[in-house]
């Protein structure tokens, strides 16, 4: 029943085979979507090569650089989408960054520069990408972003990223309200802690995972594939009545009080 055949899906945020974005891309491909992949360019091209080799089995028809702190590069990426595809149906936003020093210690010690950086990359980028995607979603569409419980509750060593995720979740609601009349849906998935390149910057990530395994109703954490399955559902016609929501894919941990 879950069929994305004929859908053009642009996936951001793949860094390696542990990325949640990688799990999402795999499940979108499995459901029949035509994939486009963005990567964060670097001077030596190492990340481009790594991501290209990883996604090769998915046979993406687009592979473009996209640094969300570079407006011209974002515009160029979506210009390529328009030129090659003509239409965009799915946008996957898996982008977040904060300085490692701003994820530990006293939250009040975060610098203005660090605060702005985290909010820019992790939250504003969703607004930026939706603005670019909106004119290409001529037949409606689905936008899915990734958030975390640290955006609504205090989580040790999450600090400024928690503020960024809170902003991201409010962005989801405002964007859903704005884009709904164009039949564009915007939702977020709040995934449980998973060992990824991004989460490795969070101090005590293994302790967090073990805690979830002990406390969550399912007595485990989740996998990239499970998050990918949820994303595929939100991108499919099975979820056409859902927008502006945060879907928890965390083995039920969010419901627990202690």
TrEMBL record:
Any single Pfam family the record assigns to this protein: adh_short_C2
Record-annotated membrane-spanning stretches: none
Keyword presence, Kinase: no
PANTHER family named in the record: ENOYL-[ACYL-CARRIER-PROTEIN] REDUCTASE, ENOYL-[ACYL-CARRIER-PROTEIN] REDUCTASE [NADH], CHLOROPLASTIC
The keyword Oxidoreductase is annotated on this UniProt entry: yes
Protein name as annotated: Enoyl-[acyl-carrier-protein] reductase [NADH]
UniProt: NAD(+) binding residues: 13, 19-20, 67-68, 95, 165, 194-198
EC number: 1.3.1.9
Residues where substrate binds: 98
Keywords: Fatty acid biosynthesis, Fatty acid metabolism, Lipid biosynthesis, Lipid metabolism, NAD, Oxidoreductase
Single Gene Ontology MF annotation: enoyl-[acyl-carrier-protein] reductase (NADH) activity
InterPro entries noted in UniProt: Enoyl-ACP_Rdtase_NADH, NAD(P)-bd_dom_sf, SDR_fam
Catalytic activity of the protein: a 2,3-saturated acyl-[ACP] + NAD(+) = a (2E)-enoyl-[ACP] + NADH + H(+)
Highest taxon above the source species: Bacteria
Any one GO BP annotation for this protein: fatty acid biosynthetic process
Native species: Thermoleptolyngbya sichuanensis A183
Active site (UniProt): 148, 158
Family according to the record: Belongs to the short-chain dehydrogenases/reductases (SDR) family. FabI subfamily.
Pathway(s) per entry: Lipid metabolism; fatty acid biosynthesis
């Amino acid at each position: 029943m879950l069929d994305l055949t004929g859908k053009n899906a642009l996936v951001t945020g793949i860094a390696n085979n542990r990325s949640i974005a990688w799990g999402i891309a795999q499940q979108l491909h499995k459901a029949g979507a035509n994939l486009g992949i963005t990567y964060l360019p670097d001077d030596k091209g190492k990340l481009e090569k790594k991501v290209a080799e990883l996604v090769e089995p998915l046979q993406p028809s687009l592979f473009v650089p996209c640094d969300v702190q570079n407006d011209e590069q974002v515009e160029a990426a979506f210009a390529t989408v328009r030129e090659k595809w003509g239409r965009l149906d799915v946008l996957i936003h898996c982008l977040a960054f904060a300085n490692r020093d701003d994820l530990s210690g006293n939250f009040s010690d975060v610098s203005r520069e660090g605060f702005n950086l985290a909010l820019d990359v992790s939250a504003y980028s969703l607004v930026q990408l939706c603005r670019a995607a909106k004119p290409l979603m001529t037949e409606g569409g689905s936008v899915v972003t990734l958030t975390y419980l640290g955006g609504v509750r205090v989580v040790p060593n999450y600090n400024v990223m928690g503020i960024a995720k809170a902003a991201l979740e409010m962005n989801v609601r405002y964007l859903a309200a704005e884009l709904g009349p164009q039949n564009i849906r915007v939702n977020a998935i709040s995934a449980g802690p998973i060992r990824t390149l991004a989460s490795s910057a969070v101090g005590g990530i293994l302790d967090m995972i073990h805690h979830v395994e002990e406390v969550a109703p399912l007595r485990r954490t989740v996998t990239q594939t499970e998050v990918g399955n949820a994303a595929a559902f939100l991108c499919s016609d099975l979820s056409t009545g859902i927008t502006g929501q945060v879907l928890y894919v965390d083995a039920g941990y969010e419901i627990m009080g202690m």
